[in-house]
Amino acid sequence: MLTTSHSRQYMTTKEILNDIGKFSSFDVALFEKHLTTKTFCKNDILLKENNVCQSVYYILAGSFFQSLRNELTESIIDLHLQNEWMFNHQSLVEQTPSQTVIKAFTKSEIIELSLISFHSLISQSQSFLQLGKILNQNNHRTFLFDNFLTPAQKYNYIQKAKPYIIQTFPIKMIASYLKITPETLSRVRATY
Question: What is the Cα–Cα distance from 51 to 48, expressed in whole angstroms?
Fold first, then answer.
């Protein structure tokens, strides 16, 4: 079982894997050998802009955000919560420099599975082909932005898909993520 120095217990690696598919005890032990645990303080950077994403991360505790900066503003690309996988999809899949930054929003702890370990696991057990599901989790962003949703529909969708976003991140960040103004989001929230 994964634990922190504060003796707080997290999901076991078996539970983490069971969210993906079916794995044997041998697979779980093999998976654990390939993991690295890391701790981040608020505002620590996990992935810098222009670095290539070389790993996938599972958030044991805390929260992260992914942002894109231009000269004038910072746009929130994604918000990540405890018990979910996180990575820069385009950078990881295409092995190109990241255009976004991934930063800890709160004190956080993650497990890291490098791309090299990812491939090694697959070569050692066909069960790990199921890990490919991690790479296909961009569904929330795709649904939000490929469907012409009203601000109320966007808010309703994230309440169902990621209900703890509302309790974790400030309105300004959520509004940026939803691509609406903070004022619009406040009006939508007032109707709930």
Answer: 6
Tell me the residue type at 93. V
Distance CA 47, CA 101 (A): 5
As to burial, measured by CB atoms within 10 angstroms (0-12 exposed, 13-18 middle, 19+ buried), residue 17 is: buried
Q: Each residue of 61-102: pLDDT tens digit?
A: 999 999 998 878 889 999 999 999 999 999 999 999 999 999
Entry pTM: 0.87
- Name the region of 22 (left: φ>0; alpha: ψ -120 to 50; beta: rest): beta
Cα separation of 54 and 115, whole Å? 6
Sheet with 74-80, edge to edge strand ranges: 45-47, 101-104, 64-69, 74-80
The rounded distance, in Å, linking the Cα atoms of 172 and 67 is: 13
Q: Is 123 exposed, middle or buried (0-12, 13-18, 19+ CB in 10 A)?
A: exposed
